[in-house]
Amino acid sequence: MDSHAKIEDKMPAHIARYSVHDVRFPTSHSLDGSDAMNKAPDYSAAYVVLHVDGGANGHGMTFTIGRGNEICCAAIAAVADLLVGREIEGLFADMGATWKLITGDSQLRWTGPEKGVIHLAAAAVINAVWDMYGKHLGQPVWRLIAGMAPDEMVSLVDWRYLSDALSPSEAIERLQDRASGKEARMLEMETTGYPAYTTSAGWLGYSDDKIRSLMRAALADGWTHFKMKVGGNLEDDSRRAAIIRSEIGPDRFLMMDANQVWGVQEAITNMDRLAEFDPWWIEEPTSPDDILGHARIARAVAPIKVATGEHCHNAVMFKQLMQANAIDVCQVDSCRLAGPNEILGVMLMADKFDIPVCPHAGGVGLCELIQHMSFVDYIAVSGNLENRVLEYVDHLHDHFLDPVRTKNGYYLTPQKPGFSVEMKADSIESYTFPTGNVWAS
Ligand SMILES: C[C@H](O)[C@@H](O)[C@@H](O)[C@H](O)C(=O)O
Ligand SMILES: [Mg+2]
What we know:
Blueprint: H1 3-10, E1 14-24, E2 44-53, E3 58-64, H2 69-80, H3 88-93, H4 95-103, H5 116-137, H6 141-146, H7 150-154, H8 168-178, H9 182-191, E4 194-198, H10 208-220, E5 225-229, H11 234-248, E6 253-257, H12 264-274, E7 281-283, H13 291-301, E8 305-308, H14 315-323, E9 329-330, H15 339-353, H16 366-381, E10 390-392, E11 406-407, E12 410-411, H17 425-431, H18 437-440
Parallel strand pairs: 4-10, 5-6, 6-7, 7-8, 8-9
Antiparallel strand pairs: 1-2, 2-3, 4-12, 11-12
């Protein structure tokens, strides 16, 4: 051991370097994940490892659907650079300040702010810091956050643009009101789990026969809520909806997802037609940025609910969607918003506005990450399961060291330390684009 190594040994645990990986899965071959807007996605992770000297590494990612993943990787490198040399205890001591450090660099901020590729990159890095924190404490992230005192939890959120809708002191009071049943709710989650719905059977690129057989398999597995894709040809949408409704019967829940393909009036007209299949919600009926458009659609299609969020790029957008009565269902995404801190801000606002949070998941790694936040929502924030279901998609879980587990249509609590996002080393290697053996051959 040389003298340099001796000095390094005595340094407090710190982030020594990072590595970024462009990992892509060729899901377009089977049209898994296909919808009216995203016709042939290759589910991809822009994946980062924060390498810690003297502690556990942190793994994180953001999600894309293929081309452009390399742009996220470049942005992740720019953001992760801000952390090199930082002592991990310092980062953990004030995770609210750490969030601001990662999202608030005065030069990088210009490329957002808080939106687009730079915010996806911030999500990847913040998810990695939370993974590192969970592993450092030996706890799964959901338990770590749900176990926080109200003021600590509220201090995670950047309130600058949110406090006109919900002030931090009111948020603390609301969490204090919920504190009494926390233990019981934690126990309930560990025994029963969190209710879920499946999208696996309803992708747009699947044949009618494939949809029918997947629906039957999902029914046999105990699922009660099903999402299908719409937004293609209206006749095709109606035919597929009729098949699905006849398979699941009148009492189970059917959700529809148009993935932004309609204009505002078109959404209203088309949902008038699809209403005969009794959808519970219509998701992304139009542009994710059109707050007033969503409000108009929501008024016109009620009692069908309007859901959105997988492309809602920050908490400020969610605030306005809520203030404008534009959404009935809030679909936060753990790779679109910048990690648990920002999601928590949205969950706290949703609780105040009495809007159920039914997160977006699926893709690759999204279920692994977001499940933690749904457990937090029920245990500590909303204390409510009414009208709440967390998305589940049955693809690519076996690439993770701590994959999600579901039973009878419920997510079971992860028990391993961290954020469940660590991918198997050989999966990273094989699926790295374009050099991994899956892509090179
Ligand atoms: C391209 C993706 O698979 C989307 O279709 C998917 O995220 C979808 O919108 C969903 O709600 O699961
Ligand atoms: Mg969707």
